[in-house]
Every structure is written in structure tokens, then in C-alpha cells.
Write a structure and sequence with these properties.
It comes from Ascobolus immersus RN42. Keywords: ATP-binding, Glutamine amidotransferase, GMP biosynthesis, Ligase, Nucleotide-binding, Purine biosynthesis. It is found in: Cytoplasm, Cytosol. By secondary structure, this protein is an alpha/beta fold. It is 43% helix and 19% strand. Helix 1 (4-19) crosses helix 2, helix 2 (33-46) crosses helix 8 (180-189) and helix 10 (217-236) packs antiparallel against helix 11 (289-302). The strands form 2 sheets. Strands 3-2-1-4-5 form a 5-stranded parallel sheet, with helices on both faces. Strands 6, 7, 8 and 9 form a 4-stranded mixed sheet that branches. Bound molecules: xanthosine-5'-monophosphate.
Length: 324
Amino acid sequence: EWTMDRFVETEIERIRALVGPTSEVIGAVSGGVDSTVAAKLMHEAIGDRFHAILVDNGVMRLNECQIVKETLTKGLGVNLDVVDASEEFLTKLKGVEDPEKKRKIIGNTFIEVFQREAAKITSRSGAHVEFLLQGTLYPDVIESISFKGPSQTIKTHHNVGGLLENMHLKLIEPLRELFKDEVRELGTNLGIPEDLVWRHPFPGPGIAIRILGEVTPEQIDIARKADNIFIEEIKAAGLYRKISQAFAALLPVRAVGVMGDQRVYDQIVALRAVETTDYMTADWFDFDGKFLRRVATRIVNEVPGVCRVVYDVTQKPPGTIEFQ
Ligand code: XMP
């Protein structure tokens, strides 16, 4: 009979046998469920011979980097290096408006930064890094079998082939037989905080694809603050787990408004919240009017530069979950 306790035991044994008594493992963490669970499992199996790397790409959510860092190190005891590469990412994103270009820049820069950081670890004296950890789940395994080669329809940011080759690493994927709900159960079993276990998915390119138009520090600041208010209110209303994914996006147009006695011409925040099981189809979440009123009032009052808030009521299909 399959139980989660037994899975943890056998998986830890399997990792230990595969990695052996002296080899080391590196892996990227993002704060998402999959990479966190994979990292914690690895830590349980081989302790500090697992090195996690968190790359701050400058387009994570408000205070997210700090929160993820503390959860992983103080909370879970994982051996973690944090790299602040935000300037490098933002410099490369300057002037870029096309969403696919944003994705490519962020994906490629991530690989460069990660590789540079990994090289620092592997070149430490006595280090014997042999494996790269990936939090691949069963559905990802199926996807990569059924779509052979690069496809325009898959938005990849985890292009690890080159990484493995350049660094002569072998892949280790302890979650490759699990579905999402099983990963959450495993996470709970390993003592990962509820907040993290039930976290909404967050795209690799982060809020860069939620800022329609150029990604500047000012726009990032606005998008982060608006998003944070929306998520805070969702949590306060006890709706976070009912919703599959929610976020604020910043539209690239301005609207007129009256703030105090002043006529302003400021930005528009679009809120999106969906329910879905497979992320292939999705329905917008039916908030009550009072909730939306509260969020809109707070955003307009608390986020300078925003004078209007709209809520997206488009299903997927035809609308996608993200705006870009
Ligand atoms: P769409 O917008 O295609 O999104 O309906 C479906 C799911 O995929 C996520 N998404 C991404 N995740 N890199 C990612 O890691 C990306 O470039 C990307 N684009 C979309 C989206 O957040 C949703 O969960």
C-alpha cells in the first residue's frame, strides 16, 4: 500500500543511494511549492551537501525574496545562497516591450546567473558537485514526452539541457512520479508551512509579464504594491485557497481621474483571479461587489500613480490567465 510516510522514507533512501556518501547536489529554488518541497526532501536526505540557489531577478513579488530566504534557511534549515541579480535583469529588460522577448531575456539571464553561482560552489576546494536538482512533477514529465523539441506553445523557462552539459551534471528529480496534490501532501508531511504549500503558481518571468509595456523600477514598484494589496485582501477574506491564481497587472495606458481637487492622468491596474484545476481552461472568480470595492479603494488610495482599477471577467479560453 502506498502511503506518504513510506514514500518519504523510500525516496530519501533512494536519494542517498544515488548521490552516494560524498557527492553534492545543487538546485535552484524560487519559493514555489515544487522547488521548496524538492529542496527540503534533499536536505532531509543529504543535509548541507545539497546547495540551494535563489536568484533574485528583480521581478519577484513584494518582499518575496526576503520571505523565501527566511523560510528556507531559518524555517527549513536548507543550505541556501541568495544572489541579487536584479540590476543585471533590469538592465537587460530596459526598453523591451514584447512579452516573448521579456521571457527569453529572463530565461537566458537566469541560466547565466545560476551557472555563474553554481561554478562558485563547484570550484570550492574539496567540492564534489555531481547532480542538479529539478522539481519536475509527473505532468511535466508527460508534457516533455508528448511535445518533442522546442514548441512555440510551451512557455519554457526551465531549459536545463545546456546547463547539464556545460557543467557535466546529472539530473536528479525526486518528485517526478507525483501530482501537484501529492507534492502538497509531501510538503505538509515534511513540515513546510501551510502558506507555502498552498501558494498560487507564479510564472518564471514574474511580474515582468504582468507589466504590459516596458519594465522599469517605477512600474515594478506600482505593480508590486497593487498585487500585494489584492493578495492581502484575498487572504483576509479567507478566499486564497478557493482561488487557483490571482494577481494584479499594470495596463500600458492611462485614464483620467479626480484625486482630491486635482485632475490626474494615471495608470490602470487590472485584477485577475481564476479558478481552474488544469490551467488549460479557467473561469474568473466571482467575488462579491463589496470585496472588489474594498480592494479598488485601497489600491487607488495606497498606490501612487494609479487612479483606476478594473476586474477581468474573461474565461480561458479565449482569454489566457496572464495578460501577456
Ligand atoms: P496562461 O497565461 O498561458 O498561463 O493561461 C497558464 C499558466 O502558466 C503560467 N505561465 C507561465 N509560467 N513561465 C512560467 O513559468 C511563463 O513564461 C509563463 N507564462 C504563463 C501562468 O501563470 C498560469 O499559471
